[in-house]
């Protein structure tokens, strides 16, 4: 087993941990509504430990995938690796800055920092997903993956756009949580697909 396969397997494990934590947050009596409330809201309250673990596990998944992709030769997706590392840092820092609730997400310095980190988190993942095919297209063994990679990247992008709109347009705020969760779902599917293919192709 080479480094690409090793770190891809670690990515799969960490992504699975993040998903389990997210499921737990939706099963536990948190009092939040998945359709409306942000995932970051789980970071405030009695069950915040699950949120922290979910965020950190997701950050480690980004780190491990970045390491795996950095081993690709002769074409290395350097910009994707950088985007994933940026996302790693933003996710690891998120638990230290709880989100603001009850209106604006920019009520306090702490809440504002949380939102800035969220921008780097979401933006980094979309950047990585949209840019990856430019490198993988040079590898014949990846040609069959083009459609799914581009579809997932587009879903991620449109979900982020919907999340941003949900921050400013009152009607869309009622569905903010739904858009964010669809983004997370597409992101985790992207992580799984890339990692599984890296393990399979070596």
UniProtKB/TrEMBL annotation:
Superkingdom of origin: Bacteria
Transmembrane stretches, start-end: 7-29, 49-68, 80-98, 113-136, 148-172, 178-199
Keyword entries, A-Z: Membrane, Transmembrane, Transmembrane helix
Keyword Heme in annotation: no
InterPro entries listed in its UniProt record: DUF998
Pfam families: DUF998
Keyword Transmembrane helix applies: yes
Protein name (database record): Membrane protein
Species of the source: Paenibacillus radicis (ex Gao et al. 2016)
Lineage, top ranks: Bacteria, Bacillati, Bacillota, Bacilli, Bacillales
